[in-house]
């Protein structure tokens, strides 16, 4: 969308006619075909809300919430990485050459 808008004048007349006039018809062209695209993009980019270039678009409330989500995601990745590096279990199977761990009941 952004690229088409910024290069709108360079597009062939047939394409410009299909997209409509900027901004209203142009936005309608995309929102009628992809109704959740803008909302999805905004929500997906919340992960970048604390970066300088995006700060103006997201309130402090979202930046704080995303810091918590990012911290939780990083912790989950670390735990997953440790589990994958386990010498006893690889993808749910005992490592080759090692007997299964006995669990006391």
Automatic annotation (TrEMBL):
InterPro entries: IRE1/2-like (IPR045133), KEN_dom (IPR010513), KEN_sf (IPR038357). GO terms for molecular function: ATP binding; protein serine/threonine kinase activity; RNA endonuclease activity; unfolded protein binding. Coiled coil: none annotated. Residues 1-60 form the KEN domain. SMART domains: PUG. The keyword Transcription does not apply. It comes from the Eukaryota. One of its GO terms (biological process) is IRE1-mediated unfolded protein response. One of its GO terms (cellular component) is IRE1-TRAF2-ASK1 complex. PROSITE patterns: KEN (PS51392). Keywords: ATP-binding, Nucleotide-binding, Signal. Residues 86-105 are annotated as: Disordered. This is KEN domain-containing protein. It comes from Ancylostoma caninum (Dog hookworm). The lineage of its organism: Eukaryota, Metazoa, Ecdysozoa, Nematoda, Chromadorea.
């Amino acid at each position: 969308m952004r690229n088409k808008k910024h290069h709108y004048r360079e597009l062939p007349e047939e394409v410009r006619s299909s997209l409509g006039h900027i901004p209203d018809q142009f936005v309608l062209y995309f929102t009628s075909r992809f109704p959740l695209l803008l909302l999805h993009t905004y929500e997906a980019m919340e992960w970048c809300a604390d970066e300088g270039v995006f700060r103006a678009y997201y309130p402090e409330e979202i930046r704080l919430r995303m810091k918590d989500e990012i911290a939780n995601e990083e912790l989950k990745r670390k735990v997953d990485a440790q589990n994958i590096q386990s010498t006893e279990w690889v993808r749910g199977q005992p490592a080759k050459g090692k007997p299964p761990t006995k669990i006391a009941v």
